[in-house]
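To fix ideas, we quote verbatim one protein's residues and C-alpha coordinates.
>
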Amino acid sequence: MINKNVIIGIIAGILSTIIGSILYVLLFSSFSFTESLEQIMRFNSLNKLINLGALLNLGVFYFFLNKNQEDRAKGVLITTLFIAIIFVVNKFL
Protein backbone atom coordinates (compact mmCIF):
# COMPACT_ATOMS: atom_id res chain seq x y z
CA MET A 1 0.00 0.00 0.00
CA ILE A 2 1.23 3.49 -0.84
CA ASN A 3 2.27 5.65 2.07
CA LYS A 4 0.23 8.81 2.79
CA ASN A 5 3.38 10.93 2.50
CA VAL A 6 4.09 9.60 -0.99
CA ILE A 7 0.60 10.68 -2.07
CA ILE A 8 1.23 14.13 -0.57
CA GLY A 9 4.48 14.27 -2.58
CA ILE A 10 2.66 13.29 -5.77
CA ILE A 11 0.08 16.02 -5.20
CA ALA A 12 2.85 18.53 -4.46
CA GLY A 13 4.61 17.52 -7.68
CA ILE A 14 1.45 17.97 -9.75
CA LEU A 15 0.68 21.33 -8.15
CA SER A 16 4.23 22.61 -8.60
CA THR A 17 4.14 21.58 -12.27
CA ILE A 18 0.87 23.46 -12.79
CA ILE A 19 2.18 26.53 -10.94
CA GLY A 20 5.46 26.39 -12.86
CA SER A 21 3.64 26.24 -16.19
CA ILE A 22 1.43 29.18 -15.27
CA LEU A 23 4.41 31.21 -14.05
CA TYR A 24 6.30 30.49 -17.25
CA VAL A 25 3.41 31.75 -19.37
CA LEU A 26 2.91 34.83 -17.21
CA LEU A 27 6.59 35.78 -17.04
CA PHE A 28 7.80 35.03 -20.56
CA SER A 29 4.83 35.77 -22.78
CA SER A 30 4.07 39.13 -24.31
CA PHE A 31 0.42 38.18 -24.82
CA SER A 32 -2.35 37.86 -22.25
CA PHE A 33 -2.71 34.55 -20.46
CA THR A 34 -5.64 33.32 -22.57
CA GLU A 35 -3.99 34.41 -25.82
CA SER A 36 -0.83 32.61 -24.78
CA LEU A 37 -2.74 29.42 -24.08
CA GLU A 38 -4.46 29.68 -27.46
CA GLN A 39 -1.06 30.05 -29.14
CA ILE A 40 0.29 27.07 -27.20
CA MET A 41 -2.65 24.92 -28.24
CA ARG A 42 -2.43 26.13 -31.85
CA PHE A 43 1.23 25.19 -32.17
CA ASN A 44 0.92 21.93 -30.17
CA SER A 45 3.43 23.11 -27.56
CA LEU A 46 1.58 21.96 -24.46
CA ASN A 47 4.10 19.17 -23.78
CA LYS A 48 6.96 21.66 -23.85
CA LEU A 49 5.12 24.00 -21.50
CA ILE A 50 4.42 21.21 -19.02
CA ASN A 51 8.06 20.11 -19.12
CA LEU A 52 9.23 23.64 -18.42
CA GLY A 53 6.74 23.82 -15.56
CA ALA A 54 8.11 20.58 -14.17
CA LEU A 55 11.42 22.32 -13.51
CA LEU A 56 9.81 23.73 -10.39
CA ASN A 57 9.67 20.14 -9.09
CA LEU A 58 13.42 20.34 -8.48
CA GLY A 59 12.92 22.95 -5.79
CA VAL A 60 10.09 21.01 -4.17
CA PHE A 61 12.14 17.80 -4.28
CA TYR A 62 15.14 19.39 -2.57
CA PHE A 63 12.89 21.14 -0.06
CA PHE A 64 11.47 17.79 1.03
CA LEU A 65 14.94 16.23 1.14
CA ASN A 66 16.29 19.03 3.33
CA LYS A 67 13.34 18.58 5.72
CA ASN A 68 14.11 14.83 5.92
CA GLN A 69 10.78 13.91 4.32
CA GLU A 70 12.08 11.26 1.94
CA ASP A 71 8.65 9.74 1.24
CA ARG A 72 7.27 13.07 0.05
CA ALA A 73 10.39 13.61 -2.07
CA LYS A 74 9.79 10.16 -3.52
CA GLY A 75 6.27 11.24 -4.53
CA VAL A 76 7.63 14.33 -6.30
CA LEU A 77 10.16 12.13 -8.10
CA ILE A 78 7.39 9.74 -9.18
CA THR A 79 5.43 12.66 -10.62
CA THR A 80 8.47 14.00 -12.46
CA LEU A 81 9.27 10.60 -13.94
CA PHE A 82 5.63 10.17 -15.00
CA ILE A 83 5.73 13.53 -16.78
CA ALA A 84 9.00 12.56 -18.49
CA ILE A 85 7.54 9.25 -19.68
CA ILE A 86 4.46 10.98 -21.08
CA PHE A 87 6.72 13.47 -22.90
CA VAL A 88 8.84 10.72 -24.45
CA VAL A 89 5.77 8.75 -25.55
CA ASN A 90 4.20 11.86 -27.12
CA LYS A 91 7.48 12.77 -28.81
CA PHE A 92 7.63 9.49 -30.71
CA LEU A 93 3.94 9.19 -31.60
Remarks:
- The mean pLDDT is 91.
- Residues 4-28 form the longest helix (25 residues).
- The two ends are 33 Å apart (CA to CA).
- Helices lie at 4-28, 33-42, 46-53, 56-66, 70-92.
